[in-house]
């Protein structure tokens, strides 16, 4: 695929949603003034937070209702944020970069510690491939613009390959797994719990995970208007996420027992994903901004993003009174 075509396709993933959002967002927000709409994926602390119900209790005191929407991946979630269907969500490292490149009006509000083993390049159990160099010319499934997109770029670089040396097959997780199972692709780059499920159910073999290549931070993002208009709601939400993350880290077995039925996965698969995740939501630091800037600069150099981005321009800072006295 030619570079300019790929670039248009990646950025268009978000731009189409944003153009529609320009028409619908104001109307959507006007009807949702006292509602916090959260987008989540099939992993992470938000799954447990949704089940626990403590956020709803705390925000009810602030006059807010909470609504939840599940998304198959970060790019799709950020589409939802830009069309005004959600106010807040969690994604991996790369989706916010492409969303910002497409003009998304979002803010990074917090992040989780690194979890590099929670994403990987997987191979079928009987694959003859034994090295990254052998991926040259191969079909590799991945979710376009997701965290694993950056992992793939870095892994190929480490083997002396260009992104143009492989054949990317852009599919959301469910479709990618189907293609992987039937042998339509040679490898699959994916994150937990889909990664853990493939390892356990399909005996998929890990060619390379993120260790030594990427941080695989999870980022909590908000629509800028919502964060600026309701800073106390955002602070309360991050406080709840931090609390439940601390509990999960200290109680992985109990967390697994709660999460497994919510995900519809076995305890063995769920525990593997739980253990590999990072916990402890915290403010965005200068070091994390630099790491995100490196990701943005990498995709700019590859001409997958049309212009240089400034990650520092989209970092949320709560008002001092909120930061010092969160509810």
From TrEMBL:
Signal peptide start-end: 1-28
Primary location recorded for the protein, binned into one broad class: periplasm
Protein family per UniProt: Belongs to the bacterial solute-binding protein SsuA/TauA family.
Alphabetized SUPFAM superfamilies for the sequence: Periplasmic binding protein-like II
Residue ranges of every copy of the Solute-binding protein family 3/N-terminal domain listed in the record: 35-255
Alphabetically ordered keywords of this record: Signal, Transport
Entries under SMART domains matching the protein: PBPb (SM00062)
Identification of the protein by name: Sulfonate ABC transporter substrate-binding protein
Organism lineage: Bacteria, Pseudomonadati, Pseudomonadota, Gammaproteobacteria, Pseudomonadales
Protein's cellular compartments: Periplasm
């Amino acid at each position: 695929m030619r570079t300019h075509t790929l670039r248009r396709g990646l950025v268009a993933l978000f731009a189409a949603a944003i153009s529609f959002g320009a028409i619908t967002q104001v109307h959507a927000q006007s009807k949702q003034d006292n509602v916090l709409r959260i987008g989540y994926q099939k992993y992470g602390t938000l799954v447990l937070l949704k089940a626990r119900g403590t956020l709803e209790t705390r925000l009810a005191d602030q006059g807010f209702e909470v609504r939840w929407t599940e998304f198959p991946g970060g790019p799709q979630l950020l589409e939802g944020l830009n069309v005004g269907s959600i106010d807040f969500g969690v994604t991996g490292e790369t989706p916010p970069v492409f969303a910002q490149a497409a003009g998304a009006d979002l803010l990074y509000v917090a992040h989780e510690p690194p979890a590099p083993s929670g994403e990987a390049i997987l191979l079928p159990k009987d694959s003859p491939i034994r090295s990254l160099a052998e991926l040259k010319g191969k079909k590799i499934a991945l979710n376009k613009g997701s965290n694993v997109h950056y992992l793939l770029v870095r892994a190929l670089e480490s083997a002396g390959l260009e992104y143009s040396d492989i054949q990317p097959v852009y599919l959301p997780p469910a479709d990618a797994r189907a293609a992987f199972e039937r042998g339509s692709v040679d490898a699959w780059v994916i994150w937990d719990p889909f990664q853990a499920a493939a390892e356990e159910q399909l005996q998929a073999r890990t060619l390379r995970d993120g260790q030594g290549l990427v941080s695989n931070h999870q980022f909590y993002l908000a629509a800028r208007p919502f964060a600026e208009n309701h800073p106390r709601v955002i602070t309360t939400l991050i406080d709840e996420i931090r609390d439940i993350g601390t509990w999960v880290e200290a109680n992985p077995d109990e967390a697994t027992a709660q999460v497994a039925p919510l995900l519809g996965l076995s305890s063995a698969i769920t525990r593997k994903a739980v253990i590999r995740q990072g916990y402890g939501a915290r403010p965005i630091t200068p070091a994390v901004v630099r790491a995100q800037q490196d990701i943005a600069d990498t995709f700019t150099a590859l001409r997958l993003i049309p212009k240089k981005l400034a990650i520092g321009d989209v970092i949320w800072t709560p008002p001092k009174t909120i930061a010092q006295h969160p509810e």
